[in-house]
């Protein structure tokens, strides 16, 4: 998700944050009595894409608990015409964004039930029916975090992953793309075309998407392990090939680092999303402003001659295909497994294609954004309290999450760290993951106990503020003292210090045991001592 291109989006979040106090545990709707396993959705649009003239959604659900007599689907305000359960007319009630469907009798555990819902109209949200930047009609799904139930009856939580098939009929002027593989495209006698897209992998409700419009569309001329196509406005056509030139190399790099690209195609759409980019499984939607000032915007990526904002948002949303889409956060508190990973992998892409200095500056920008945010709000990355899900799109989940990964890389070394991420991905792909799953995977490959690290960095708030000093200890030795001056608990993460003397520099490592640690080393009088010279820790250093 949802990486905002500018920082202004955070400001809104910050203002909201200071005016509200969140103390209670957030209630999340977690899977309990039943779960969806497959959606078969047939949508027909009117000629101007301003309304759904008819929709039939078949949801197959598996019953998980004894004596279930009712399936309470999440569903918005579109009036329901009829509901069938396994082909027979069923009683239903629509209220408060719910569609209660009554079964003929108690279901048995493990039983699959097909619920068919017919409805029509204009959804209040989730499927955005607006004119594109050229003034042409368009229809774009934009569902994060829980807006898809405005147009598809479902279980609107990321853990409710299912396969999905979209059958979409629209005026033949349009192109239509949706999750998965194009199964068929049929022209009808009434100047409409019916497109069938089918996703066999399990995806989260917020990742289910349809995009229809009079797009300029083509396959990218790029080397990549999967076909990549773009769907942009006619006026953006001239920028699409170059603008999306980082996409192929990003798919290739992440595939090499983590595991094969999880899906059968990648579509890059520019259209109505409220985010900078939305990572819908294999059908990413980028903001209509993606290519604004494309030729002049600065700073630019020298490698691709595109604005750096375009390069990183493209890499970020592509990284989500592995982290967020394939391996999905099990609860909203685990969102950093999606956003922190996408932020960090966009950095790895920059490091690979533009070198370590640009990567360092990317990570410094991330640190700056986080430290600004922390001044206003101190919550842990693993946030179980914030009520408004959109408020979770904050620098804890993005920037600090990326830094937590970077610190783990510093502690484990590149090879072990990357192997750990690979094992984490492979063991959870197409499924769900918690922060503990990540810890377990990294502990397994490294042999380290990472409990304290995760407790401090992920489950508690704040960052270390280091102060380093030294005193002579005899002729050839000094005592180095490392203090942590932050108001809350100590960080026990090992800290590298570079001691610079007239004779040169040498490095030592201090493993703090509390807020104050000291170490005696053989050394001449230091000219200066640099804390964390390789910049692996999200920190401040004070004199
Ligand atoms: Zn994201």
Short description:
This protein is of the alpha+beta class. The strands form 8 sheets. Strands 5-4-8-2-1-11-14-13 form an 8-stranded mixed beta sheet, with no helix packed on it. Bound molecules: zinc ion (ZN).
Polypeptide structure, described:
With 543 residues, the chain is of the alpha+beta class. It has a domain at 465-542: Immunoglobulin-like (Sandwich). It has 10 helices and 31 strands. The strands form 8 sheets. It has an 8-stranded mixed beta sheet with strand order 5-4-8-2-1-11-14-13, with no helix packed on it. A 5-stranded mixed beta sheet has the order 16-17-18-20-19, with helices on one face. Residues 5-22 have low confidence and may be disordered. Residues 1-3, 279, 316, 320, 339, 342 line the site of zinc ion (ZN). Zinc ion binds at residues 1-3, 279, 316, 320, 339, 342.
Which class do the helix and strand fractions yield?
alpha+beta
Helix fraction by DSSP (H/I, runs of at least 4): 10-25%
Characterize the main sheet.
Answer: 8 strands, mixed
The CATH topology label of the domain at 465-542 is Immunoglobulin-like
Oligomer: single chain
Under CATH at level 1, the class of the domain at 465-542 stands as: Mainly Beta
Number of helices: 10
Ligands = zinc ion
Average pLDDT score: 95
Distance between the termini: 38 Å
Strand content: 25-35%
């Amino acid at each position: 998700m949802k990486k905002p291109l500018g920082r202004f989006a955070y400001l809104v979040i910050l203002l909201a944050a200071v005016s509200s106090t969140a103390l209670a545990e957030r209630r999340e709707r977690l899977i309990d009595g039943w779960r969806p396993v497959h959606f078969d959705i047939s949508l027909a649009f009117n000629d101007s894409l301003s309304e759904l003239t008819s929709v039939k959604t078949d949801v197959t659900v598996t019953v998980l608990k004894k004596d279930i007599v009712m399936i309470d689907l999440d569903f918005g305000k579109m009036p329901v015409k009829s509901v069938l359960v396994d082909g027979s007319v069923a009683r239903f009630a629509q209220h408060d964004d719910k569609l209660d469907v009554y079964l003929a009798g108690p279901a048995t555990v493990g039983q699959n039930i097909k619920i068919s819902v017919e409805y029509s109209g204009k959804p209040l949200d989730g499927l955005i029916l607006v004119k594109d930047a050229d003034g042409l009609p368009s229809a774009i799904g934009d569902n994060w975090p829980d807006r898809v139930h405005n147009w598809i009856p479902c279980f609107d939580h990321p853990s409710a992953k299912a396969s999905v098939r979209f059958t979409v009929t629209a005026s033949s002027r349009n192109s239509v793309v949706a999750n998965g593989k194009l199964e068929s495209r049929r022209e009808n006698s009434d100047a409409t075309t019916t497109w069938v897209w089918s996703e066999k992998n399990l995806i989260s409700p917020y990742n289910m998407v349809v995009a229809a419009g009079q797009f300029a569309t083509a396959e990218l001329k790029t080397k990549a392990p999967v076909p990549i196509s773009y769907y942009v406005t006619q006026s953006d056509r001239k920028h699409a090939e170059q603008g999306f030139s980082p996409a192929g190399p990003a798919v290739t790099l992440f595939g090499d680092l983590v595991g094969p690209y999880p899906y059968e195609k990648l579509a890059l759409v520019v259209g109505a999303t409220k985010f900078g980019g939305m990572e819908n499984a294999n059908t990413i939607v980028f903001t209509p402003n993606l290519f604004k000032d494309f030729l002049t915007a600065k700073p630019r990526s020298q490698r691709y001659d595109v604005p750096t904002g375009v390069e990183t948002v493209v890499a970020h949303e592509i990284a989500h295909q592995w982290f967020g889409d394939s391996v999905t956060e099990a609860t909203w508190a685990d969102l950093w497994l999606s956003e922190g990973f996408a932020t960090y992998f966009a950095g790895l892409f920059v490091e690979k294609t533009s070198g370590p200095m640009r990567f360092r500056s990317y990570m410094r920008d991330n640190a700056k954004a986080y430290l600004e945010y922390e001044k206003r709000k101190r919550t842990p990355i693993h946030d179980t309290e914030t009520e408004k899900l959109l408020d979770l799109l904050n620098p804890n989940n993005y920037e600090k999450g990326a830094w937590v990964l970077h610190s783990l890389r510093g502690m484990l070394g590149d090879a072990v760290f990357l192997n750990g991420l690979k094992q984490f991905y492979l063991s959870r792909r197409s499924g769900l993951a918690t922060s503990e799953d990540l810890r377990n995977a990294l502990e397994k490959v490294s042999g380290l106990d990472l409990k304290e690290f995760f407790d401090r960095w992920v489950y508690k708030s704040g960052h270390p503020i280091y102060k380093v000093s030294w005193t002579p200890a005899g002729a050839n030795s000094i005592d180095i003292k490392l203090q942590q001056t932050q108001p809350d608990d100590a960080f026990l993460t090992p800290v590298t210090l570079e001691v610079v003397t007239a004779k040169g520099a040498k490095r030592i490592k201090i493993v703090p045991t509390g807020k104050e640690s000291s170490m005696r080393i053989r050394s001449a009088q230091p000219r200066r001592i640099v804390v964390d010279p390789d910049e692996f820790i999200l920190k401040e250093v004070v004199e």
